[in-house]
Amino acid sequence: MGIAYHQRLAPLVAVRMWCQVPAPSAIDLHVDNMMHTLKKLFLPLLFVGTLVLTGCEANNMDDETTTLMLRLQPTVGTQDLSSDPATVYTIGDQNLTFGSARMYISEITLLRDNGEEVTFTGETITVPAKNENDETITHTTSDLFILAKHDAGDEMFTLGEVPAGVYEGVRFKLGITGTNNNIDPSQVPAGHPLAKQTDKNNHWSWNAGFIYLRIDGLLDLDGDGTVETSDEAGWNVHLGTPNFAQVIELDETFTLDGDGMQTLHLIADYARFVEDVDFSDPAQRICHTMNNLPVAQKVAADISGAFMLHGIHDGHN
Amino acid sequence: METRRCAWLLIALAVCIAGCDALSASEEPEVVQVTVPDGFDPVPIPAFNPLTAAKVELGRQLFSDPILSRTEAVSCASCHEATRFFIDGKPRSIGVEGREGLRNAPSLLNVAYQRLLFWDGGSQTLESQVLAPLENEAEMDLPLDAVLERLMNHPDYPTRFVEVFGEGPSIPTLTQAIAAFERTLVSTGSRYDRFQTGDTQALTTLEREGEALFFGRAQCSTCHSGFLLTNQQFENNGLRPTEADSGRARITLNPQDVGRFKVPSLRNVAWTAPYMHDGRFATLEAVVAHYDAGGEGTQNQHPRIQPLHLSTQEKDALVAFLHTLTDEALIP
């Protein structure tokens, strides 16, 4: 995981990237060539060295950093979310369970009180994708993506090193947009969040693009407090396509003190996602976005209100 | 100029190469060249998935292997039969336990040229397309983790994958192998190709009349153009829609795309009945009759689809011309 420093620190990042240009193989280098190369590189190296020293100085002035983790805690109202089929939740006047509860988060950005924005980066991948003309291209991205598999429990994620200081909020996107949403997940290395999942897939096999929010489960149709297992009792919301990606900004001031590891604790209330969907209406029980735009729109409208910044904790808890 | 190239030759070539020289991981893999005649674009081979003989052969074997379905009774080849121009001849495909799919299985010949896959363009690459029928409940109905488990527990596949990819079965390697095989399914020869390249005796008088209508008054070539006889666009050809299938609109969410489906290639069309996305027309005569009637006047219907008032002979001529698009080397 890494971090992209915008504004003042950006030139330093650029220089470091420039230095990563692969060197020629040692076998191919004769002494003369080496000297010639060194002569050619002298001025650029001097320039780089100056910038690096300047950057180090700036970094020192920028106080300390902290390793920031993200806890994205799933709840259903005031309860913890569980995908145990025996755990029945009451949302409005609907009793239901959660089977899948997964979401993609991207473009996580911390908002500093001095106007700077700190955007996190992730593992670099180079993979096939489609451009706007439906042509297959080779696409490289270092963006940080988080696939929160909340049906498997409460997860922690590493965001990266962050300058200590006062922050006024956090912004992120539920969903994935741009060319990143047209990546072919079948070719993404296993272990990367965008790789094709082999269970509870967060990518449609019949359509391009990632499923930003995947929630499903069973309904208590007869009101006896337990859910039925018939096909009619199934509900799902698979929300995707760029139109439904949502930017969420939580404006609350917090301080990162630069002392080791700290955790940004957010809460995702899954009850909010479905509180306006009337599952007593069979027409609202199945939503794969395109097949049921009215339900997709209801869910999307409730997304921003489903997240809350709980606070900053020391360590990783 | 050589115009007869067919999938069989390419597959046979790949099999021969793989069979004659088992590859070890340290050897340079033999690259399969898919050659096409003048007038055809080069077959697009993505840099991340180069064709090698061993990979194509592995893909061919996977394509025909029913262990990739839940019941171990359905393979990719069940709906794309090599002896039937890679179709199944059914209006809509039949998957595990006799389940009927939503749409007609298109031929895979020349699929390497398709920019988008499926009748609605929902799949963007041949590699990602591979996974759709595996997971689809009406097709092979096997979760991907189960697919990989079966491959990894197979007596031969793990070794074969390592030989080809340097690693075992995975989503990327599985999809690359099958896609590599599918890219070799190229059909480029027909009587019409011979006619176009100077063999004036290749078409009869009736067929030439049909050709004139196809590219002239009937305006078929508005959509069926280029060396594949498709513009690769999504068009509404005036078919009465079904509630279950909105076509391209399912992908784009655009109401103007309701009833639009991908324009299919007409190569080998005489052997790929039944026709349309749902296989509703059993014969070419029924297809021509549909267009002659000007479609069914549906929402979003292409403006060029208007009553043609063709005579019986003109309809026969059009059908006769469509028969000239057959790659005769593929006829069983």
How would you characterize the overall build of this protein?
The complex is a heterodimer of chains A (317) and B (332). Chain A is an alpha+beta fold and 317 residues long. Chain A has 2 domains: 2-61; 66-314, no CATH class. Chain A contains 4 helices and 18 strands. The radius of gyration of chain A is 23 Å and the shape is globular. With 332 residues, chain B is mainly alpha-helical. Chain B has 2 domains: 7-183, Orthogonal Bundle (Cytochrome Bc1 Complex, Chain D, domain 2); 191-330, Cytochrome c-like domain (Cytochrome Bc1 Complex, Chain D, domain 2, Orthogonal Bundle), CATH 1.10.760.10. Mean pLDDT of chain B is 91; it is low at 1-25. Helices cover 34% and strands 1% of the residues of chain B. The chains are: A alpha+beta (317), B mainly alpha (332). The A-B interface holds A 127-128, 130, 134-136, 138, 182, 184-190, 195-199, 201, 204-208, 241, 243, 289-291, 293 and B 44, 46-48, 115-116, 118, 121-125, 127-128, 130-132, 134-136, 143-145, 147-148, 170-172, 175-176, 249-251, 253.
